[in-house]
Design brief:
Blueprint (H helix, E strand, L loop, with lengths): L2 E7 L2 E10 L2 E7 L2 E11 L4 E8 L4 E7 L9 E5 L2 E4 L2 E3 L2 E7 L2 H9 L13 E2 L15 E2 L7
Parallel strand pairs: 11-12
Antiparallel strand pairs: 1-2, 2-3, 4-5, 4-7, 5-6, 6-10, 7-8, 8-9
């Protein structure tokens, strides 16, 4: 039975499958991989984004990253020796962590999310009371300032 292995080198995701042949492990390394974003959320207090991604081989991961580009569901990520491309454009990501997808962890992260843009029904204004570390809201929300009338 193949075992999927994931590693990160210089911010590029590498995938390998191990196969047992003649009692020896053989690794097939792919430097080019295509991923699709299933869902994303953002932490305004840390400026960290989280995306659930899936490969064409059905490998699901949760990636934690910092970037000026926030990945939305349906976005296509291609990793290669040349870098990381999001929807065909080079992107500069700082990868913080990568873990296998866990549905209950993802639900918990969504439930405990502080950003109103992470909600299933998007509000028209941001009501986050803490300090937001994002320079620009990826959801296009404007900050709702207390004491001001619309």
């Amino acid at each position: 039975m193949p075992v999927k292995i994931l590693s990160i080198k210089y911010g590029i995701l590498y995938s390998a499958e191990s196969l047992v042949l003649n009692n020896c492990y053989c690794f097939i390394l792919e430097k080019y991989m295509k991923w699709t974003v299933i869902d994303s959320l953002i932490s305004p207090s840390t400026g960290t984004a989280f995306s659930c991604i899936i490969s064409y081989r059905e490998l699901k991961l949760i990636i934690w990253y910092k970037s000026s580009d926030f990945m939305m569901p349906g976005d296509e990520i291609i990793t290669s020796d040349l870098g990381v491309f999001i929807n065909g454009q080079i992107s500069y990501l700082t990868m913080c962590n990568v873990i296998p997808f866990n549905a209950s962890l993802w639900r918990t992260m969504l439930a405990q999310s502080e950003c109103p843009g992470n909600a299933e029904i998007k509000p028209t204004q941001c009501n986050f009371n803490g300090k937001c570390r994002l320079k620009k809201c990826p959801f296009g929300l404007e900050k709702n300032l207390p004491g001001l009338f619309p």
